[in-house]
Amino acid sequence: MKYDILLAGVGGQGLLSMAVIIASAAMKNGYFVKQSEVHGMSQRGGAVLANLRISDQPIHSDIIARGDADMILSLEIMEGLRYLDYLAADGTMLTSTGRVENIGDYPAQEEIVDRIQQLPHTCLVQADDLAKEAGTVLAGNMAMVGAASVFLPLEAEGLEIQIERLFRPKGGKVVETNLRAFRLGRNSLSCAAP
Amino acid sequence: MFPMVVYLPRVSGSTSIKRGPVRQVLLGDEAVALGAVHAGITAAYAYPGTPSTEILEYLIRLSDQAGKPKACWCANEKTAFEEALGVSMVGRRALVAMKHVGLNVAADPFMNGAIVQINGGLVVAVADDPGMHSSQNEQDSRYFADMARIPCLEPANQQEAYEMVREAFELSEQFHVPVMVRLVTRLAHSRAVVRPQPPLAERPMKKPRDTRGWTLLPAYARMQWRDLLDRQPDMLAFSEASPNNQLVLNPERHDLGVITTGLARNYYFENFGELRHRPSHLHVGAYPLPVARIRELAAHVDKLLVLEEGNPYLERYLRGLLPQALRIEGKLSGHLPQDGELTPDFVRLALDLPGRRSVSTTDLPVRNRPPQLCQGCPHADSYAAIRASIEGLEQSLVASDIGCYTLGALPPYSAIESCVCMGASIGMAKGAAEAGMNPVFAVIGDSTFLHSGVTPLMDAVAHDADIVLVILDNSTVGMTGGQPTILPSSALEPLVLGLGVHPEHLHVLEAHPKRVGEMTEVLRREIRHHGLSVVIAVRECIETAKRRRREERSPQPGGAEG
What we know:
heterodimer, A: alpha/beta, Pyruvate-ferredoxin Oxidoreductase, domain 3, six-stranded mixed sheet, 7 helices, 6 strands, globular, B: alpha/beta, Rossmann fold, 3 domains, seven-stranded mixed sheet, five-stranded mixed sheet, 19 strands, disordered N terminus, disordered C terminus
């Protein structure tokens, strides 16, 4: 088994927390994991990218090869497309419909959605709405982890344990909100999981 | 085992192995830090710099909890290295960490540290940044280790990073030289499981009886240099015998030999399964270059493919200057790009494997999203004032420096016109003014100023350079994640005055949207003054302020952003 996930988003969206939760759940499951992230200048409101590789065999490369990603998991509607050449021919594009319009010539939503829907395996998640429903706009990333959990070779329970661990220092309320977002995301998928 | 707080929770970790410390999930940088702790270091020193910053951050967290080792940020990489030399001289182990361009700043103690008689182990962890994720160049630190004639270890994964740091301390004491551990971004900022080994105790303090080995008077320096040259064969013998340099010959095939260094091995192995034949392979993880092993491989094959992350360091050695029968492929032959990061995809093509199929990527509605200053960043207000103050002028130059504020070169600010190296803004401004340009600004952050801006300001004071220096004081090292500056903001004004800047031409102003007009007026006035002027533009970094307020509300450590 190997499952390569390319996580995309905009600096400040909480990409790293997503990567850490999935990576730790995978590790608890006994899988080999490598998780590569970006620090420094590129984080400042720019496009950010993380590589997460899960396998039952030792993993060599820290970064995913082109055409090899089983999933692009994007916190922003345009950002997932940026790395499309990394997606395997039968890979899944799982993206939030949310837009971060901090640039001038941002394309129209229909244009982006149309292009995404040309892909063989696509799933759009109203992550921002789900996060608001859960109690905070900040929890969009956990809604996306919830949606991704339908595809990942991991149990939802293991992911929930890691969410609880990550947010515990911030108090029980924050944990509950994020778990709620996770479950809303998990139950939101209208597209069929493989 | 030391207790520790990790800013992201440990993502596995509690599974204990029978002997020795607990398995942990660590960034490459953190594996370096833990290796140093388990090697019994007494102290660690650094200046923040991507991708090396997390080494000291880890050690500082540890030190806050356990009381040791001594771990501190320094004014710059040179002072950090010198402090580590002091630890070594009295017989104890020290780690000094920096990014590749930091080694330029530390080059003086680094080159001369190679000549002194290292006593306690001294390891310099240098993180190169191929691809310039957050740097201004792609220099390869292996050249520096070579020039200083010291060993260099180059890990390919987190476990090796941990083990090689421990080994580097042993080598440092064995050969009495500093030893380099070279990292690259992709290892520094990638996490995986590390299995630590039992930790060693701290070394006792032991000053050398003979201090001539630390006193580089020409007469003593000649002896030390001769001695360092005499130790070279021993270092080479270490490298030839090192399990970090593994040669595997395929007796049945002679068409191709592959040499990998450091991280390149991962990309080679990533593609290995698809190769029809198994090439002979030498991996180099320890330097000086294992010459005999390289020759053995070369004698066995008709063609060598060299895969290395960074500059074509080994490849250049192999090619030499004279014609040879052996075919060598690598970066210099154009089989791999000379710039940017190595990837599994480039290595694939160099191995003559077909490119992978992916989904169609034509006509994507995707726009560039460059990094930018945060909403509400005080630098934006200073840039608004600088631009307004020079508006309408026929000519002007705004020299700047390295930090978040370098993003002011991009629209919508387009306010600065240079970024070369730490502190360069002030010297360049002085030079440009002396060449006839007017007005000339130097724009530098508070931490960059303390790192490398004080000495050029002395030059500017001494010659009353006709420049306007703007120190952007946001009370933090912003770009690398908000580390404390080496001196608090309150120290800047007396420091600048103490250097001899005229009090009438020193202004401390708030960088605030409501006070842009006031700052513009002051800048216009100082442009008219023919001599040195300094404006300190003050407002705390909004990210640091946010974090501080959060910590004041709930003082628990740890936890990542949601």
